[in-house]
Amino acid sequence: MRLTFITLTFGLSVLTVSAGKFRVIREWKHLNFTWPTRDTYQNALSVGDYVPENNILTGIKHFEGHFYVTLPRMKKGVPATLARIPSGPTTDTAPLLEPFPSWEMNRIGDCSALQNVQNVEVDPKGQIWIIDIGRTETLVEGVVRCPPKLVIFDIKKNMTTTAYTFPNNVASLNSSFLYDIVVDDTDAGYAYITDNSVADPGIIVFSVKDHHSWKIRHAPSMRADPTAATFKVNDVTVDAPINVAGIALGPRIHASGDRIVVDEDREVFYSPLSSLHLFSINTSVLRDEMNGKMDGEYQGNVRDCGIKASQTAGMVMDNKGTLYYTLLGTNSIAKWDTHLPFQSGQRLIARDQRFLEWPNSFTFDQSGNITVLVNRLDRFLYNRLNISEANFRLISSYTGGRSYLYDQGYDYNVDPNITTSTPTDESADPDVLPASDNDPYLIPQPIPEHKEQPETTKEPNPEPEATAEPEPTTEPGPTAEPEPSAEPKSSAEPEPSAEPKPSAEPEPSAEPEPSAKPEPSAEPEPSARPEPIAEPKPSAEPEPSAEPEPSAEPEPSAEPEPSAEPEPSAEPNSSNMDKNHMSHDQMTQEHMNHTTDIGEASKVQQSSASRLFSSFIGVIFACLFFSV
């Protein structure tokens, strides 16, 4: 799909897409914070507690006037791992980040504080669910600070309501990496968390009521696909097998045949980052702790939904049942109406190399807007982040949807077009096809093979012209004039249309001429003209004089008219050229013969005059002689 950009106030941009317009609402070259004092800031810089190029945004969620963003401590020098910024209109498009809930709650080495947060979720009650990996500097050697934990913090009350440390058999102290989280409010609440641990990937389930957790494992769908571990984002090659990452919770309200069904058992969608497949598993399977055992009987309940166009980092479900997900290798965002089959229901909604370089996560606000966090993680991973240029963006568009957490208030419309058809100035959204060798977004379209089509399409035209040739003979000169009525005469009369010379070009094809030769073969010299008759287009240039000549062709004996016919020979036709030259030579010879006859006649006249003069002189001399 093609994206266009226009300049906005404050130097922001707009991406025009099929679902509306994505506006760049925030943009940073590097990230900085609301430091308590200037001295604190200077000290953090000097001792390495704050290294600007080591700070990156990954997760985002919106709640009541703020965006809550995460900054995982993958490298040294990240002073806060969770922060927030105002979400309303502002002239400050690169705001400072306010550590959340406080600087103290982001203190490194304090296990009651946050150590390394990759993603969060905010429920309708205003509780922010925070997954803390516990280890820091995970992109380097890794430093174990604290065990992995889940913290539920009430934003309105400004207090922690739940803090749960995962047991080592669920989330390993040394290898777990809590990546993403969705919240299910069924039966007092559950959290489903992806752990893309290299050693033990899976989906962790936490029960609020039981204050207990377990892990569901399924290697075929949760481990990286080796064939998808290497891919390219612009000029950066990403080569790392990354296990299960993005996760989304389907709507409880869905269509079943012709009926609308409200079901507490919902589908959970997920995908390893290093995979082109989207998988799903039902929440009834996840909520059964017995399935947490290896090789549980749930194995057959994992569904492969289908293939995506590229690898995916983040995904989110809205309250209408539309799944939004990122496509890293194509710098794209796509959506899928989950009420339709995956392969036919996918739609590409935005694509741009510059503004969508590694779209990482999503959030909805209460007004129907979706916001995408873009972070250039591909450059960050390989130390190629240039903090003198824009690296992090929040891009927003109106969709009319809200978070999946608000689906109880959604009035479902059975019309399947509700999410797949959106106003656009282009044609319908293009299908998102699988990547690899036939990915239309990664390879150029094949160039059509050259065919001799023009000649074959024009040959039929000369043929009717050949049939039209007799017509001029039946309707001598007049036929050339009634060009309108000459339309039936096909290309013979289209001399007006022949003037465009395109039609004259077909005639240059020597092919029709041979066919023309046989017909006028009975008329020696004019036989070279039947083609020009079909081509009187050039002959039309020499004015009517050329047009009468076709009528003269039926009477080749008509004296100089044949000589006038050579005028069409002005057409640069290969075989005709020779014939025209021959006729010209013949005409020249005839002219020479004619001149010779005149000379001979003048000689006869001169000889008879001299004889008369001699007789006259003889008479005079005789008279003089006799008079003497």
From TrEMBL:
Entry's localization field: Secreted
Signal peptide: 1-19
Keywords tagged on the record: Secreted, Signal
Biased composition (Acidic residues): 544-564
Biased composition (Basic and acidic residues): 448-461, 526-540, 578-594
Pfam family for this entry, one: MRJP
Region (Disordered): 416-604
Major site of localization recorded for this protein: secreted
Bias (Polar residues): 416-425
Biased composition (Pro residues): 497-525
GO CC field: extracellular region
Biased composition annotated in UniProt, kind: Low complexity: 482-495, 566-575
Family according to the record: Belongs to the major royal jelly protein family.
Name of the protein described by the UniProt record: Uncharacterized protein
Species of origin: Phaedon cochleariae
